[in-house]
Amino acid sequence: MLGWSINLFRIRGIRISLHFSFLLLLAYVCNEGWLADGMPGLLWSAGTFLAFFTCVVLHELGHSLTAMQFGVHVRRILLMPIGGMAEFDQIPRKPSQELLITVAGPAVNFVIAGILWFVVDFPSGWDLDSASVSLADLGRTVLRWNLAMGFFNLIPAFPMDGGRILRALLALRLPYLKATYWAATIAKVVTVPGVLIALYLGQYFVAAIFVFIFMAGEAEYRSVKRREAEEAYWKQVMTEPPPPPPAGEPPVLNG
Ligand SMILES: [Zn+2]
After folding, report:
1. Residue 148 falls inside a structural domain
2. Would you name the residues annotated as active-site residues?
């Protein structure tokens, strides 16, 4: 499902790729803008959409560049309609490193919001869809988006950022697998009402994101469990003494 993508460019060796469904969403957004207001509507829709995803890339770069500081290889950042995903070779087991890598993403959004705060006035409303054609309005819209993105990612729904922060904090005290189990369990407790509330409010897209998080949390817990079992197996194999040579056999000549 994640295979069909287009590579755009590289930043510090990290590939930035677009999933094909991202282009479908862009086409949909442009069409909606065109139907609403002709060419200005199309330009506004495409402009705000690309500004939003630029912030998503910056958020993922926050995670990725911090991870690279700890020697993690970042293969690519994949952009999908539900957001971005940085693909690491491995996630550091050290809770302090996972904590810093995770916090760096939302921190980027709050920094962008802070910079925009100085450039434009504080947004008066919280309507994320408000569209207008002035540059200041674009700035206000992007400011609100970044605040929303930063806070939404901090919801403790593993494997979202908030859930990873929770896992890292739990892993300071608990074994890694136990910490992952509790983070994934809390994610279920958070996402089920999240889906129901989003459906009640008619926010089907948000409901779909919560369903995705629910499944992704469970999948990541299973993968950690599998890896721990494999590691335990190999550890046992490596530490087992070699079997004694069968009695009565002639010594083997080398050479
Ligand atoms: Zn993030």
Report:
1. yes
2. 60
Do 210 and 157 form a contact (C-beta atoms < 8 A)? yes
CA 203 to chain centre: 20
In the reported structure, the alpha carbon of residue 102 is separated from the centroid of ligand 1 by a whole-number distance in angstroms of 6
| Residue 163 falls inside a structural domain | yes
Neighbours of ion ligand 1 (CB under 5 A): 105, 161
pLDDT in tens, 219-247: 989 988 898 888 878 887 777 766 666 66
Indicate if 187 and 149 belong to the same structural domain: no
Count CB atoms within 10 A of the CB of residue 182: 17
Residue 15, domain member (yes or no): yes
- Give the distance (Å) from ligand 1 centre to CA of residue 84: 8
For residue 115, is it within any domain?
Answer: yes
pLDDT tops 60 at residue 124: no
Q: Tell me the pTM.
A: 0.79
**CA pair distance 186, 213, nearest whole angstrom:** 12
- Flag whether pLDDT at 251 surpasses 70: no
Strands 83-88 and 74-80: antiparallel
Range of the domain at 131: 1-154
Q: Are residues 209 and 184 in the same domain?
A: yes
- Positions of E strands within the chain: 5-11, 14-19, 74-80, 83-88
